[in-house]
Amino acid sequence: MKEIFQTFKPKSTIIQKYVDYYYLDIKPNNIINEFQCFPHFNNTISIYKSHNRLENGTMVFDETTKPFQIFTPIREKVLDVTQIGRVHRIVVVFNPLGIQQFYRNLNFTNYITDFNFLNEKELKKIFSTTKTEILVDLLDDFFEKKIQPFNNQTLEDAISYIFEHNGTLSITEISNKIGISRQHLNRIFQLHLGVSIKKFQNIVIFRKTINEKLFENPENNFTELAHKFNFNDQSHLIKTYKHLTEQSPKVFFDKGKILGDEDTFWHLQS
Fold first, then answer.
1. How far apart are CA 246 and CA 78, in angstroms?
2. Which residues of 166-205 are buried (b: 16+ CB within 10 A; e: fewer)?
3. In the 8-state DSSP scheme, what is residue 30?
4. DSSP class of 66
5. Spatial distance between the Cα atoms of 61 and 53, rounded to a whole number of angstroms
6. The CA-based dihedral angle spanning residues 149, 150, 152, 158, taken in that order and rounded to the nearest 10 degrees
7. How is residue 53 annotated by DSSP?
8. At 92, is the pLDDT very low, low, confident or very high (cuts 50, 70, 90)?
């Protein structure tokens, strides 16, 4: 088996509303792999074929163990990942309200490691192939069968305002437009997304600056980036990056690597 990192989009128009993309990550000869990934408004389910998770979060290959499933919520801190031994995992990257369409009563404040997102039969099927054209059909089919529509118009409206206005609307202005108190709006975000509305807004703007710099206008300097996304000045942009990545924007972009064809941008340590 060869090393693979491949992203692929859902083909189902139903699933496309809720899942941003999938990816397949295979490292057959891995001894130890370390990387950092950064705050995102998406959340993920990672499914390892044969791994155990240590108390410090390190994933250790063990061919005798069953697949390990872990949900990673929206977060505002750098995530350090260590994988020991060979790796075969499949990851589902959900839109902000995506996972809620398939599973109920999840706690979004921390990692979830004790929930079977896919059952034993489904796991056996997805780990029987490394062809993404087959995997996408399997995953789309599995998730279509799990749909339990979740609707919260208040939350959807607030998220839309955040994405559309690039930080020009304050949280109070968003709550006034929707017609509820800021405190109540914040409680809804904490319940259904695991972060406050202000933290969510900060992460969205941060990810938009990354997308702009990597894919839209790489030639723009950080002053132009700060202006486009309504930071007070370049110093404000730098402060935001240091809070969310522990590094300046220059170091962050210089050290990172795009993996696959989507917005997976990690700092590889090994």
1. 8
2. beebebeebbeebeeebeebbebbbebbbbbbebbbbbbb
3. -
4. P
5. 9
6. -100
7. E
8. very high
Joined together, the tokens standing for residue 228 give: 């486009």
Average pLDDT, the chain: 96
Distance CA 34, CA 153 (A): 40
The structure tokens listed for 248 are: 């300046």
- Tokens 């206008």 locate to 217
Length of the chain, in residues: 270
DSSP state of 17: G
d(CA 192, CA 97): 8
Retrieve residue 60's tokens. 């250790």
Residues 6+ apart with CB under 8 A from 149: 101
Write out pLDDT tens, residues 47-77.
999 999 999 999 999 999 999 999 999 999 9
In a 3-state reduction of DSSP, which class is residue 147?
Answer: coil
Instruction: Look up the pTM and report it.
Output: 0.96
Q: How far is CA 169 from CA 84, 141, 161, 183, 244, in A?
A: 44, 39, 8, 16, 21
The widest CA-to-CA distance across the chain, in whole angstroms, is 56
Token pair of 256, please?
């990172």
Q: Provide CB contacts within 8 A for 7, sequence distance 6+.
A: 21, 22, 23, 259, 260, 261, 262, 264
In the chain, how many H helices and how many E strands?
Answer: 9, 11
All structural domains of the chain, each given as residue ranges with its CATH number in brackets, are: 4-149 (2.60.120), 153-248 (1.10.10.60)
Q: What is the pLDDT of residue 1?
A: 76
What is the structure's pLDDT at 270? Answer: 62
What does the alpha-carbon distance between residue 69 and residue 71 come to, in Å, rounded to a whole number? Answer: 7
Whether 138 shows a pLDDT value over 90: the answer reads yes
For the purposes of burial, counting CB atoms within 10 Å of the CB of 137, is it exposed (0-12), middle (13-18) or buried (19 or more)?
A: middle
